[in-house]
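Notebook entry, structure prediction.
Reason for the run: the old model in the group folder had no record of what sequence produced it. Starting over properly, with the input documented here first.
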Amino acid sequence: MPVVTVQQGPRTVELKRALVERITDAFVDSLGVPAESVQVWIQETPPESWAVGGTLTADK
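New structure, fully documented this time:
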């Protein structure tokens, strides 16, 4: 049973639906596992809790 964790900033439900569909398809196509066995966990972090290069993404 593949388990995929995605860490990202907040996205719309529509974008998350498309993402998990494509991730699931990738595992089905490459590993031949049933779609029902693929779990995708999305962990969203707000911009004020994420930094790149020493700067919060909320400040960019």
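Summary: The domain at 3-59 is CATH 3.30.429.10 (Macrophage Migration Inhibitory Factor).
The old model has been moved to the deprecated folder.
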